């Protein structure tokens, strides 16, 4: 069985992959991520591939998982906030509105050329909320490393009214689809 490497430093992705019952190591190499493209939906696909390709080159025998998540509101990407004022602005912009969370995954095993690329989309409807709710949320949750300035798994009930799609996808790794692709490559969860 191939060694499995997550090309990410994200604690959330590490937790999700560990919960799948897959033994893995993590290695994030620096890449120049894309911020925009004519079709914004291609950005996470490009970034996931860049991350996977970089680590796969360093570990050609391993199966490498690269992932990237983007929050889309009215076709525009909401990236990671630059500061707390930006986080506050983003959350108020999302209040009472539906947005999409797109997570792209790139799987690479350089040794035999095996690869798969896919993306999942989850629609998230936010409750209407005011600046006071945003301020309380920002006091409770560290958001500067999170696209869209929120973490659905941390006090998400303060913000989220409804979810259409996979929760894991919003957190940063669409596990159900990922496991299906990994099974094709001969990698399956370890029985408890």
Helices and strands, with pairings:
Blueprint: E1 4-6, H1 11-19, E2 25-26, H2 42-58, E3 63-73, E4 76-78, H3 84-94, E5 98-109, E6 114-126, H4 131-140, E7 160-164, H5 167-171, H6 175-184
Parallel strand pairs: 1-2, 1-3
Antiparallel strand pairs: 3-4, 3-5, 5-6, 6-7
Helix pairs in contact: 3-4
- The count of strands amounts to 7
How is the biggest beta sheet arranged?
Answer: 7 strands, mixed
Number of domains: 1
Order of helices and strands: EHEHEEHEEHEHH
Describe the oligomeric state of these chains in a short phrase.
single chain
Total helix count?
6
Share in helix: 25-40%
Using the 3D structure, state the CATH architecture. Alpha-Beta Complex
Which range does the strand content fall in?
25-35%
Mean pLDDT across all residues, rounded? 94
Look up the CATH topology: Maf protein
- Low-confidence regions: none
Q: How many angstroms separate the termini? A: 18 Å
Query: Can you identify the CATH class?
Result: Alpha Beta
Radius of gyration, CA atoms, in whole angstroms: 17 Å
The computed structural class is alpha/beta
Global geometry: elongated
What does this structure look like?
- It is built from six helices and seven strands.
- It is α/β, with parallel strands linked by helices.
- The protein has a single domain (4-184), classed as Maf protein (Alpha-Beta Complex), CATH 3.90.950.10.
- The protein starts with a strand and ends in an 8-residue tail after the last helix.
């Amino acid at each position: 069985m191939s060694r499995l490497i997550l090309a990410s430093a994200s604690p959330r992705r590490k937790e999700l992959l560990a919960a799948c019952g897959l033994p893995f190591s993590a290695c994030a190499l620096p890449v120049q991520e894309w911020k925009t493209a004519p079709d914004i939906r291609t950005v996470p696909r490009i970034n996931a591939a860049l991350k996977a390709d970089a680590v796969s080159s360093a570990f050609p025998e391993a199966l490498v998982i690269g992932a990237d998540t983007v929050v889309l509101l009215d076709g525009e990407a909401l990236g990671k906030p630059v500061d707390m004022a930006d986080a506050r602005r983003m959350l108020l912009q999302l209040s009472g509105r539906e947005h999409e969370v797109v997570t792209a995954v790139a799987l690479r095993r350089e040794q035999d050329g095996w690869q798969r690329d896919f993306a999942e989309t989850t629609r998230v409807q936010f409750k209407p909320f005011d600046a006071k709710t945003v301020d309380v949320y920002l006091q409770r949750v560290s958001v500067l490393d999170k696209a869209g300035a929120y973490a659905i798994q941390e006090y998400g009930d303060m913000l989220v009214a409804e979810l259409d799609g996979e929760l894991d996808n919003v957190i940063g790794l669409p596990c159900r689809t990922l496991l299906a692709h990994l099974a094709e490559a001969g990698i399956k969860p370890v029985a408890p």
